[in-house]
Predict the structure.
Amino acid sequence: QVQLVESGGGLVQPGGSLRLSCAASEFTLDYYAIGWFRQAPGKEREGVSCVSISYGTTYYADSVKGRFTISTDNAKNTVYLQMNNLKPEDTGVYYCATGPPDGSSWHGGTVAYWGQGTQVTVSS
């Protein structure tokens, strides 16, 4: 059974930084796409970023390009999301997720597995 465990959320002031981590068990980063979604209060869940090692691709939503960076540590089977210059509109629950290696989950396709989510709040 694949398990995704997120950590690293919290409260940060606008302009600050956070790094989210997602530790994956019973899962290989080498093949499937893995990344992050977020859901703000009263809004639909949206794809933020993903990485596919097998396809050699990364994806970022336009709203986070230039501010967020996704990376992996294959030895630890962990994916990270470094979030810089955070804005109040980045507030929400961030979910780690996996899907097919083409990254289609982040473009309306089905997500295979979800983590439990971690809260990120950007506020002064």
